[in-house]
Arylsulfatase (Rubinisphaera italica), 841 residues
Amino acid sequence: MTAFIQIARGTIRPLFLSIAFVTMLTGNCLAQKSPPTGSPAATTTIDGKQLPAPDPKFGGVIKPDALQSKPWWAPRIVPPQDAPNVLLIITDDSGFGVPSTFGGVIPTPAMDRVANSGLRYNNIHSTALCSPTRAALITGRNHHSVGFGVISEQSTGFPGYNSIIPEDKATIGRILLDNGYATSWFGKDHNTPAFAASQLGPFDQWPTGMGFEYFYGFVGGDANQWQPNLFRNTTQIYPFVGKPGWNLVTAMADDAIKYLNHMNQTMPDKPFFVKYAPGATHAPHHPTKEWVEKIHNMHLFDEGYGKLREQIFENQKKLGVIPADTQLAPWPNDVLKPWDQLTAEEQKLFIKQVEVFAAFSAYNDHEIGRVIQTIEDMGKLENTLIIYINGDNGTSAEGGPLGTPNEVAFFNGINMMPVEEQMKWYDVWGTEETYNHMSAGWSWAFDTPFTWFKQNASKLGGIRQNMAISWPARIKDKGGMREQFCHVIDIVPTILEAAGIPEPETVDGIPQQPMEGTSLLYTFDKKNAKAPSQHQTQYFEMMGQWALYHEGWLLSTKVNRAPWEAFGVANPDPLNNQILELYNLNEDFSQSNNIAGKNPDKIKELKEVFIAEAKKYQVFPMDASVAGRLVAPRPNITAGRTEFVYTLPMTGLPQGDSPSILNSSYTITADITVPESGAEGMILTSGGRFCGYGFYLLKGKPVFLWNLLDLQRIKWEGKDALAPGNHTLEFDFKYEGLGAGTLMFNSMSGLARPGTGILKVDGKVVATQKMEKTIPMILQWDESFDIGSDTLTGVNDADYQPPFPLTAKLNKLTLKIDRPQLSPDDIKKLEAAMRNNKSSE
């Protein structure tokens, strides 16, 4: 210890320490050019077969005293030498004809930059829906294989549809993390089950539980970009409060840039994997005013969606991203009204809708460009593999032929809101006052040269994306085109091969199922630019519409449901009750020439292949229902409960984990104490500005309010302010329908039925009113169930602004739900209706 005392006192004379002591402190690293085994700085790669890697055997020497012992530290695990950084970008609800990189009119210079320094891919495919594609993307397996046959909000109790990624199919985040990468995820999740999204977890299916050390984003399928339900890791955050003009698109890029710089300054030699998944261009389309003005001044859409489609088609041929002989199918007059048949008011509204969508897309690409520029500024662009996938499915048509100022209305069966009604929001379209979506006519144009949309798994408009990949250290064919058939399940194998990391055999002791995708690394070499695709067979299925790609052929079902037709009677036999079409994609790039009539044997052969693939990858049982699955029972934390009691304020409980009062009778009772100064504030609310309910005190008066899709607000209100002291407030609602159970029979007769609400104060009726229609499916699902205040947006801006805390003392809040049950007679009637419907088909 004498030496340390002398140093502390500032002694300058030389100090002589024993060699053994120096070795104990430094692992002898002072004498080495590279860190030796056992030193604190030592590193190692692993074979990757077992994750996490087993602890190495202690390599030091232990004697009775430290001076005679030799310390030893386990080496830090690092990826193989020259393994690249990885930036994986996937945008949302964006079809083949959206980005300028592939002939679109919307400027996407960041994607252009990646393509010009690397490669364009014009033949990559999705699953036709968002979270199924994302589950496939992060696992390298088909979406049914990992439980995501549909989105989690539609999950059902079958392995291919339960929205639970199984433990024998580890994500790319987990694999790279255990091999020494820094892993992070920004933006949209939607791979956490809706019934496991609360602050109680479990968190194994959150990004941080799937191998991503850092998460900044939203858990559900969409988000209000102005006031999102936002999380950092598993903690809800509100960075937008008090910041007018704050927008998640920019904030997310800012957070990613901060993360990358912090990591680079802390540990510059540690490779990173960033999954960057912005909410754009999923509805609501929420760009900043600046970007709306930029796009408006470009006058890209003044001639309508038909002319836009033709322009994109010509651009694509000029760029060579589609073959010169590609056909463009006629405009679908039976599905969407031609532009010249629209009224002047319709055209005006539709142009506003699409300018906001285009602004959202361009704004998003600009912010992606800032992240890419940060990597270059760090000096790491050369060895960074950037994969930029445009869209997780085709462009969304869920706004219906007319568009909508409120996407939540679509999910509740309102998809043809009159244009004159929508014009009320014309001046605020895309602002925080709307949850907007555009007309499906634009969606059809943005999927050029293909037809149909998101949700349509049998048409290339729903499943064909495009992609740009750059890796300057490896890819030398700058600006090259790659036309090999590929799918999002090919991305994980590509990343692993690029990093020199094998698929693990076990993770946490659990044997892993093999990857189902095929690496695209062979396409990086110019000599393989025209090489045959190594991905030869791929099935597609989404809500009963299906297809099979096999060696250039595409067998597909004829579209029998537009995406906005979610509430009809579902096809009872989606495997066989279909009109089958056949295409030779080697000769017919746009899937325009149906040759089924000339090839019955080929159809039979390919259907047998589809059935084999469906069995292999958990596609069965196929289910063509859409809306019905939104209200199907699933194992959330409220399952089986009819009474809920709360005694303290609580906020942030997501819709999938909160008590649902839809299609039910219910009673809400609040025991409160009003102080001498009076009281106001929120007692209980669920949902927000675009759909929900609230029970609150307004200037001392009790209020219960239903916000019906921002189209109507029904209010029960007491006439008098509550006097100081204890009070019991009660809202009792008697529902007249049969409840969600009717959806088992694909009948909507029991949903959205009338009901009568009675508001009481201390046992006395103060307001009674009948609701002629109720909400059938969902509230605003990026909002939450709050007690004692209101987070994010309020259900009635005219009455209050969040957080609107309750200034009375909440003693007890009780919610009782009486869900209607189907009687034997009801079941017989619905079964008969189903049989009659099937026979009529």
